[in-house]
Amino acid sequence: MIPVLPIILAATAACAVTTSLAAVLLLAERYLVKYGKCKLDVNSGDRLIEVKGGKSVLESLKGEGIFIPSACGGRGTCAYCKLKITEGGGPVAPTELALLTEQELADNVRITCQVKVRNDMSLLVPEHLLSAGEYRGVVERITDLTHDIKNLRIRLTEPERIKYRPGQYIQLEAPAYGDNPEAVYRAYSMSSMPDEDNCIELIIRLVPGGICTTWVFTMLAEGDEVRFNGPYGDFHLSETDREMVWIAGGSGMAPFWSMVRHMAAHGIARKTTYFFGAVRAADLFLLDELRKLDDQHEWFTFVPALSAPADEDKWYGETGLITDVVGRHVPDGSQAEVYLCGSPGMVDAAGRVIEAKGIPPERVFFDKFG
Amino acid sequence: MELLAPGALCRDGFLGDDHRGLAEILDTDRAAVEALGLTHRDIAGALDTACRAAIAGLEAPVHLPGGNLVAQFHDAMGVIPSPWGEGKLFAKGEVVVTDAATEERLIYTPLSVHLIGEHGFYEGRGSPYRIEPAKVARMFGLGKHPNDSDTTSE
To answer: What is the C-alpha to C-alpha distance for residues A251 and A330, in angstroms, rounded to an integer?
Structure first.
């Protein structure tokens, strides 16, 4: 008969030893290992950075003013912070494997929050991320636009000016509060005009259970200091003279509110039709301002639509899903450019309508809410 | 799991005020689903169908075919990763399914559908998007119900 007890004891002892060794190694790496200075070569010599080893690539770059967007705060779950590390990245961690395709692995793409700087490295950072910076500002005004959408106006204090293109976004920092142990960053399109370069405005919709929007809606007050980084993104007006069709819903208003005022201020008279969808009248905002721009400029047409108006809304405008309204108003878009900003569902549905109108994909630009 | 805690991926986390361990939460819900004669995928499938219909409605209420259920999606900006760490991202926003006859409501997210279908995780008690398997079964008319008594045991 096989003695079971000694086998169980031996297996338990082996597990205990392995676990203890792993714990010792982790603690040793955390408290005892000193990596010293490491050199990061960004974009083949364009920028050479010296950092103290031991932190993640994401954190190290942030410390040097290079902000790589991340939705999970460096926890290795969102896969937003991918960069090519061409030299010195070391072996791919198991936590990265699930987040990288075979092609990405072959191309040396890494999840930068999961790669520690232990030695010199060479990495490639997209140019548009290199031009982003960190800003401090003071909340000048918070305005309710609807029951769940606020406009936040931030006056810059350090640096005092920002340069960006209408349609770009920033990442706002929500500091640690309550059960949230550390600061998080969330992306918001700027709704302000770049000409007014000493402040930015954001249109923020409350996300149920959202860390950042809860902070904005319940804690942030006028006069508070805030931090953000940016600008980011390639969702902006093209350099052509093509007619434009804009489609948005909810806080997808932000980039278009920036673009239309920028166009009006700079005499950019590209024919533009802006379709904005909401469910009820109470979900619409900036209606008077956009109608005024529609009256003032022949090139601009504003088409708000409600998908489920109630009698008390007294709505006499367009009704139906915004995608259906676009279908009715745009008979042939084959020469147009299309700009979409909204939820993934809205952008996908609008994309199908646009495709049916014969607009090629290279002339469709979208911002899918992150 | 660290990512299930409040503040890790979302304000309230995924465990609510449930003092049970994750394994116990998963085991209890698995037993509840089996008692209904269902699988996690059955539950997730029904929720997914309603979620897709709601998303297609672009925030307007959508009547689901063959019953009293109305689904509505409340959009939100951004995406949220799965706390299981598979690198999958899900649109934020919540689905509200209402039974027009009883006014019973079910609130969940696109991430909930994934967590139930792939991991059998219905979230802890007290979590904002905790889903009771029996409630889904009742509202969507799935599986065995308490009233469907087993006559052989009588």
So the answer is: 23
At B107 the three-state DSSP class reads: strand
Interface mutation target, options B3, B48, B58, chain A, most CBs of A under 10 Å: B58
In this predicted model, what pLDDT tens digit does every residue of B54-98 receive, in sequence order? 999 999 999 999 889 999 999 887 788 889 877 788 888 999 999
Among B9, B13, B75, beta carbon nearest to A250: B75
Least confident of A171-175, A254-258, B146-150: B146-150
CA angle B140, B146, B149 (to 5 degrees): 120
pLDDT in the model for residue A34: 64
Whether the pLDDT of residue B150 is over 60: the answer is no
Asked if B58 lies within 8 A of A79 by C-beta distance, the reply is no
Chains A–B, number of C-beta pairs less than 8 Å apart: 133
Q: How far apart, in whole angstroms, are the C-alpha atoms of residue A172 and residue A186?
A: 5
Burial class (CB in 10 A: 0-12, 13-18, 19+), A7: exposed
Q: What is the per-residue pLDDT across A6-24, written as a single tens digit (0 to 9) for each?
A: 666 666 666 566 656 656 6
Tell me how far apart the alpha carbons of residues A302 and B34 are, in angstroms, rounded to a whole number: 54
Nearest-by-Cβ selection for A77 from B6, B81, B94: B81
- Give pLDDT, residue B152: 37
DSSP letters spanning B30-89: HHHHHHTT--HHHHHHHHHHHHHHHHHTTTS-EEPTTSSEEEEEEEEEEEEE-TT-SS-E
Closest residue, chain A, to B61 (C-alpha): A308
Q: What is the pLDDT of residue B153?
A: 35
Flag if A321 and B77 touch (Cβ within 8 Å): no
Please, which pLDDT band fits residue A342 given cuts at 50, 70 and 90?
confident
Angstroms from A252 CA to nearest CA on chain B: 9
**Which amino acid is located at B48 in the chain?**
D
The phi, psi pair for A132, rounded to 5°, reads -80, 150
CB contact under 8 Å between B86 and A98, yes or no, is yes
Contacts of A17 (CB under 8 A, 6+ apart): none
CB atoms within 10 A of CB B57: 21
